[in-house]
């Protein structure tokens, strides 16, 4: 949810700034068109005004880039650097998954008969640390997408 909040904040500010710049440009363009039709005399160019306009646009651009980078840094910094710990215990062709960091020390288990199969649940975008052990004999634990499997030995993590 933090990412959605940061994106919403950045998008809102950038949209407001883009809308204001658009309104300023439309206003200046309308004023120039009205004055050009009313005046036929040649007036000298205004390099100072043009330089001010370019400087203001550059300042807005620098502000938006810096603010967006700061928001991205805050979002990355807010992520919990500690890995999520999952205790995995193998027993007779089945698994138990424990989550010791959850408030209620939740666990997921099953009998692995029929549809009573445990499901490993982990959040996306977070490092997961598996503590793998077995109750009875050696078991092999692997998660699709991992490059290696882990052997679960009795009384060893």
Q: What integer value in Å does the Rg equal? A: 30 Å
Biggest sheet details: 4 strands, mixed
Instruction: Write down the domain tally.
Output: 2
**Structural class designation:** alpha+beta
Could you give the count of β-strands? 6
**Mean model confidence by pLDDT:** 81
| Beta fraction | 15-25%
Distance between the amino and carboxyl termini: 33 Å
Please bin the fraction of helical residues. 40-55%
Strand order of the largest sheet: 3-2-1-4
DSSP helical segment count: 2
Extract low-pLDDT stretches.
Answer: none
Shape: rod-shaped
Order of helices and strands: HHEEEEEE
Plain-language structure description:
The protein is α+β, with helices and mostly antiparallel strands and 157 residues long. It contains 2 helices and 6 strands. The protein has 2 domains: 77 residues; 69 residues, Immunoglobulin-like (Sandwich), CATH 2.60.40.420. The chain has a 4-stranded mixed beta sheet with strand order 3-2-1-4, with no helix packed on it. Strands 5-6 form a two-stranded antiparallel sheet. Helix 1 packs antiparallel against helix 2. The longest helix has 37 residues.
Brief digest:
The chain is of the alpha+beta class and about 160 residues long.
Q: What tags apply to this protein structure?
A:
single chain; 157 residues; alpha+beta; Immunoglobulin-like; 2 domains; two-stranded antiparallel ribbon; 2 helices; 6 strands; rod-shaped
Give the topology.
Layout: H1 2-38, H2 47-78, E1 84-91, E2 94-98, E3 107-108, E4 128-134, E5 139-141, E6 150-152
Parallel strand pairs: 1-4
Antiparallel strand pairs: 1-2, 2-3, 5-6
Helix pairs in contact: 1-2
């Amino acid at each position: 949810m933090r990412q959605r909040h940061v994106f919403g904040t950045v998008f809102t500010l950038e949209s407001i700034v883009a809308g204001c710049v658009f309104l300023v440009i439309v206003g200046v363009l309308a004023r120039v068109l009205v004055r050009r039709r009313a005046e036929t005399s040649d007036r000298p160019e205004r390099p100072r005004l043009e330089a001010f306009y370019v400087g203001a646009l550059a300042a807005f651009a620098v502000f938006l880039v810096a603010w967006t980078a700061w928001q991205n840094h805050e979002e990355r910094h807010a992520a919990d650097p500690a890995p999520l710990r999952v205790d995995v215990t193998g027993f007779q062709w089945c698994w138990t998954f424990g989550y010791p960091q959850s408030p209620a020390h939740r666990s997921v288990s099953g009998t692995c008969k029929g549809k009573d199969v445990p499901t490993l649940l982990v959040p996306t975008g977070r490092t997961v640390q598996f503590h793998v052990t077995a109750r009875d004999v050696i078991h092999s634990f692997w998660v699709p997408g991992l490059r290696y499997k882990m052997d679960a030995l009795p009384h060893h993590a």
